[in-house]
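Retro notes (design track)

What went well: tokenization of the new backbones is finally stable.
What didn't: we kept losing track of which sequence belonged to which structure.
Fix going forward: every design gets posted as structure first, then sequence, in one message. First example under the new rule, 74 residues:
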């Protein structure tokens, strides 16, 4: 017996989920304060195709995020 055709849904619990694309570009800098301390910063811009499933609702599907990291060497 063949299986019935299923339709894709945006609900994350659906059997077949609609595809979604996420286009990202990032820019980063690294600064070595001395031989024990490294500081890294990244800025990201994301563009999500399905705006309903985007994490930020103020700007539909497009948003900025940043990351700052401090690394110590022992």
């Amino acid at each position: 017996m063949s299986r019935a055709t299923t339709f894709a849904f945006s609900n994350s619990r659906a059997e077949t989920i609609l595809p979604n694309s996420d286009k990202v570009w990032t820019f980063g800098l690294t600064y070595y304060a001395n031989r024990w301390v490294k500081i890294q910063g990244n800025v990201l811009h994301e563009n999500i195709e399905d705006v309903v499933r985007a994490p930020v609702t103020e700007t539909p599907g497009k948003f900025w995020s940043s990351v700052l990291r401090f690394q110590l060497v022992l």
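Added context from the reviewer: The chain has a mean pLDDT of 83.
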